[in-house]
Amino acid sequence: MNGSFLIILLLLALAWFVLVRPQRRRQASQEELFASLRRGDEIVTAGGLYGRIQSVRDDELDLEIAPGTVVRVARRAVAARIEPDDEEEPQEEPAEAAIPESES
Fold it and tell me: I want to staple 49 with a disulfide (CB 3.0 to 4.6 A). Which of 20, 45, 58, 64 is the partner?
């Protein structure tokens, strides 16, 4: 009986470290993100909309997704902040190799 009690305790400890602890870290990180949102930040929502924050209220944001197009989104819908270093610069397409015309 003493051995089975020890096994149950070990399984509970394992479940804590594998399931509960990482979830709490993710939740704390997400709460920190929500609290740090400011006007002018570029974000992406959980639905995949990219935009710049125009105003921040208690539980809502006004998000400009295109010039002159502002939508209201829930603060909880923010998936991530886009850092200026994260933005990819458009890559130039390689010039097509000149194809020599065949002489007839």
Answer: 45
